[in-house]
Design goal:
CATH architecture: Up-down Bundle
Mean pLDDT: 80
Low-confidence stretches: 1-22
Radius of gyration: 21 Å
CATH class: Mainly Alpha
Structural class: mainly alpha
Shape: globular
Number of helices: 21
Strand content: under 5%
Number of strands: 0
CATH topology: Na+/H+ antiporter like fold
């Protein structure tokens, strides 16, 4: 999913190329009006989901509320009712709300508890990475048995070149996607198609992860998961804050926002100097995404948030709802991401979407198989997978669907995805080239 990108200005350029025309034709494109509609949708979903009885309770027992937060805006965008042709809403949500909510979520993180989660989380993270590397060439080979033209093309239009950018996006994020675009140089038309495949297929997978979160106990029973570490972490978190919550005052809410946005501002200022310094003095560091502003924005925000979690005064902000404010920001981000979907693209590029679906399914089978073997909880599957495919923008969303205070686990793994993304995508691209050319 294209959730993280190269620089502040380039953050959503790839997605905008695809959605710009469709969004411009939407009935409502005024940014204030669109944002208002998205918030009304969120309010309706959460008010109906809070019903303790009746039809709504049964409905949300089948369909998790967070899925609707995502797909209703996508449906309205596809139907041309609302749109964001400039991409300003996504820019604000990903560049301002996302790092701020990461800071606020980190205030409540229990690092010793996370450390006790053990090696299973990393095993599943790297299993997801391996699933992307091997799944690309497998999907290309499988679909070519049905339609050989899928692996065709000449020069910049060779399909494997475009798929290399999807591999980059699915192992780290948009920064790695951009790196693969520069390395393998697919044509602009092919790249645009791949962005659409990336967005829709990755979002379908994210939807499944969120659906699984609503049925975690059922999946954990099937996996015969050892829940000792997870239960211990959640009990520690609940015990830490039990009986300490109070109704926040205006002063409390302003302080929460001040801490979150102040750290975001510091992260921006630092990233604006650090990324260009690496680019000018250590060009080789681009392969690790160290020249990308968004990388530093996420890393600095998360790091400062983790440091603040050791400060009692900052940690106490959780007692007045820091994670609730952060969760609000996350749901706004979910709705805005959904707005970028164009479901009609499935009919335009059916075989490329088939490649993407087989690819993601290959990774999923590998993940569930490994989780079954090591008896890992489905939380590890969801976060390990989404840290690869969605990166820092969506991994905390999936983690928070299990428990809002576990969202930083997704962030920490997503940062790891940046480091391995370029290498993993390069290997995957070369394997896909071998499948395509037979050499």
């Amino acid at each position: 999913m294209t959730n993280d990108n190269a620089t502040a200005a380039e953050a959503i350029a790839a997605v905008i190329e695809i959605t710009e025309v469709a969004h411009a034709d939407a009935w409502i494109t005024n940014k204030a009006a669109v944002l208002g509609i998205l918030l009304v949708i969120l309010a309706f979903i959460f008010r109906t989901a809070s019903r303790e009885s009746g039809g709504w309770k049964k409905f949300y027992g089948i369909v998790p509320s967070i899925l609707l937060c995502y797909f209703i805006p996508g449906l309205l965008s596809t139907l041309g009712i609302i749109g964001d042709p400039s991409g300003d809403l996504y820019f604000v949500a990903s560049r301002f709300l996302l790092p701020t909510c990461l800071v606020l979520l980190c205030l409540a993180i229990d690092l010793p508890g996370i450390a006790r989660l053990g090696p299973k989380l990393l095993i599943l993270f790297f299993t997801a990475t391996a699933g992307i590397i091997l799944g690309g060439p497998f999907a290309l080979w499988a679909i070519s048995l049905i339609d050989p033209s899928v692996v065709g093309g000449e020069g910049p239009d060779e399909v494997w070149r475009g798929l290399s950018t999807v591999a980059g996006s699915w192992i780290g994020g948009g920064a790695n996607m951009t790196a693969m675009k520069e390395v393998f140089e697919p044509s602009s038309d092919l790249f645009s198609a791949m962005v659409t495949v990336d967005v829709i297929v990755a979002n379908i997978w994210m939807g499944f992860m969120l659906w699984m979160a609503g049925r975690a106990r059922t999946f954990d029973r099937w996996l015969k998961a050892d829940m000792t570490a997870m239960d211990d972490l959640q009990q520690r978190v609940e015990k830490l804050y039990a009986g300490k919550a109070r109704i926040p005052s205006t002063s409390d809410l302003i302080t929460i926002c001040a801490v979150g946005f102040a750290v975001t501002g510091i992260a921006f200022l630092a990233a604006e100097h650090i990324a260009p310094w690496f680019e000018a003095n250590h060009p080789w560091s681009a392969r690790f995404s160290l020249t990308k502003m968004f990388f530093w924005l996420v890393v600095i925000s998360t790091t400062v948030g983790l440091l603040l979690s050791a400060v009692p005064a900052a940690r106490s902000l959780e007692h007045v709802g820091a994670s609730k404010v952060a969760t609000l920001f996350l749901y706004i981000l979910v709705a805005v991401i959904g707005l970028e979907m164009d479901l009609t693209a499935i009919a335009t590029y059916p075989w490329l979407f088939a490649v993407g679906l087989v690819w993601i399914l290959f990774q999923g089978i590998l993940l569930f198989g490994m989780a079954k073997i090591i008896k890992a909880p489905c939380f590890f599957i969801a976060v390990g997978s989404q840290a690869n495919i969605g990166g820092a923008a969506s991994a905390p969303i999936v983690a928070s669907a299990f428990n809002p205070r576990l969202a930083p686990v997704g962030v920490l793994l997503a940062v790891l995805g940046y480091a391995v993304g370029t290498y993993g995508a390069w290997v995957c691209a070369n394997l896909m080239q071998m499948v395509s050319t037979g050499s």
